[in-house]
Here is the input.
Amino acid sequence: MSGTLSAEEQELEPALRARISALSEEGWEIWRRFDEEVRQENWHPFVPADYDHVLQTLLRLRAPGLRFLELGSATGVITIMADMLGYEAYGIELDGKLVDVARELARRFDSGARFAAGSFLPAGYRYRSRTGDDRIGTIGHGASAYPELRHPLEDFDLVYGYPWHGEEPMMLDLMRAYGGRGARLLLHGGKEGIRIFRDGRREL
Ligand SMILES: C[S@@+](CC[C@H](N)C(=O)[O-])C[C@H]1O[C@@H](n2cnc3c(N)ncnc32)[C@H](O)[C@@H]1O
Here is the structure.
């Protein structure tokens, strides 16, 4: 967490604040090792979000009974953070080794966050862009992970992704086609840091 606490962070119980802080530190440590041992050898689509930035948004949006999904959950830090904040939290990740890391991290932090290995693209989904360019960038292919989660995409109130440059339209299209009514899509990255969309319209 950053040095200066936001109003929402100040309202957190000190023990929870400390747990979230420890989780974030551990997340950065895991990333440092991953970058050294995996990314220096071969390109990999995993780069971590600014955890503190995402935390502020999760704090602002939290409300009882919300179901959260992370698209491409990598080491699981954000999904576990969402679980700690009271969301019913799930993550989907294509790289099975990263799913193992996320499950182990959840175990160490005594978190109920759930992870599935596979693709966040539903089995029948095909991206059709408005420009005719249907490439999906670094987003990989694999068996859809929703059956393992036992929830289709439309069951989630808050869906979070950190797309690579140019992949945002696909995530918006995915939510238009399969997202629940009134669900929010939270996109990290770009100049603004975080953008929030609801029913396809920009909210923030
Ligand atoms: C830019 S990283 C974001 C990591 C994490 N969500 C964060 O915000 O720190 C994107 C992640 O999406 C995963 N990914 C790519 N295509 C996927 C797919 N079709 N289904 C599930 N995960 C995917 C990558 O392996 C990578 O871990």
